[in-house]
Amino acid sequence: DAGVTQSPTHLIKTRGQQVTLRCSPKSGHDTVSWYQQALGQGPQFIFQYYEEEERQRGNFPDRFSGHQFPNYSSELNVNALLLGDSALYLCASSLGGGHYEQYFGPGTRLTVT
Amino acid sequence: AQSVTQLGSHVSVSEGALVLLRCNYSSSVPPYLFWYVQYPNQGLQLLLKYTSAATLVKGINGFEAEFKKSETSFHLTKPSAHMSDAAEYFCAVSVGNTDKLIFGTGTRLQVFP
Fold first, then answer.
1. Exposure string for A74-94, b = 16+ CB within 10 A, e = fewer
2. Burial letters for B58-67: b for 16+ Cβ neighbours within 10 Å, e otherwise?
3. What residues of chain A have any CB closer than 8 angstroms to a CB in chain B?
4. Number of CB atoms found within 10 A of residue A48's CB
């Protein structure tokens, strides 16, 4: 049983560019959450997708957007990249929300130069 | 607003010694509490969770945590540290009808032989 997978593993972008990160949830899960983990910090909630709609959103600007596909996989898009967007981006999947366990992927390390 | 405070960004113990990692939460409603572990260059793995059942929660790898409402605490303990326990540990809270996780800043555990 495959767990949560994320791609790519590492990414280097230049300020002002746009980036797309991808996540495939654990088999049987229908909810995907995205978190940003800056160096030396705890993860910060970006948003959550359920039934192909954004269900919750954290305190992140509109430059951060996402999508969930019918197969429950998800994308995180960040436009107009800033140096401060450099971080580990974690995807977590769960079943239907409601405080069930969230399973995390290995993350995508984004470096903005 | 909900929040989590982890006391001590670094904790060092000798192999075989007691591990105690501290977590205090702030919430106006009954919380769901979690401890996650993160090994270098990896995602987060759930150690244990409190969901208003038993106040003493047993997790994986010999870890346990006790929910103390009067102290708003959820400290993580392990009777005997092992070298493989060296990692970053995060306490997290979710409340109400939302399952987004709010993380503390983490505690790095070092285990010396």
1. bbbebeebeeebbbbbbbbbb
2. ebeeebbbeb
3. 4, 33, 35, 40-45, 48, 56, 58, 90, 92, 94, 97-107
4. 26
* pLDDT tens per residue across span B15-66: 999 999 999 999 877 788 999 999 988 889 999 999 877 889 999 999 999 9
Following DSSP, what letter does each residue of B53-111 receive, concatenated? S-SEEE-GGG-EEEEEGGGTEEEEEESS--GGG-EEEEEEEEETT----EE---EEEEE
Whether residue A42 and residue B105 make contact (CB cut-off 8 A), yes or no, is yes
**Distance in Å, alpha carbon of A7 to nearest chain B alpha carbon:** 13
User: Do A2 and A27 form a contact (C-beta atoms < 8 A)?
Assistant: yes
Residue of A nearest to B105 (CA): A42
DSSP string, A12-52: EE-TT--EEEEEEPPTT--EEEEEEE-TTS--EEEEEEETT
- Chain A: residue nearest B89 by CA? A42
